[in-house]
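Hey, resending since the last one bounced:
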Amino acid sequence: KEQVFSAIIISKQVESLNTIFKLLQNIHTMKLGKSQRAGYGHVQVENLCSITDWEGEYKRNEGNTQTSGRLQVILLSDALLRDPLTGTHTTDLPAWLGLKEEDVQDVYSNCRVRGSFNRKWNLPGLQTHVIRAGSTYVFNDNPKLQAKLRGYEADGMGESLAEGLGRIAVN
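The structure tokens again:
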């Protein structure tokens, strides 16, 4: 069965991005992973584009500072969050952000179990709960929270950021 995936490469090192872009432009098909001889991992690279000012899968109007008294947070990818008090994974984003119940206006979220695999031991890894991409949270606006969320918007939030988790959009 054919599957379609997309990827985004983000870096502050423009020279490295240009090198990767040039390499990918010259490669139309490749094989990824360990089981290349078994026929797994065959991928086709297409629809490459380079965006110098990437802000996620949305466009924010920098001139519009009006937030209507609320901050909307949309997860662009799954988010893996660890509770700072207990060390366990959590799906409660408002609590993870340190918000009180009265700071939350609305929540439209869903979670799922995310599995992993340990290649060194050839065994399944731990299964963890993640907040699913597309989950939306609406919080009361305050400058401190807005600054914190803008930082997460730029760098990602939670764990497994290198794997693409924790991408968000604000307002």
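The mean pLDDT is 82.

Sorry for the duplicate.
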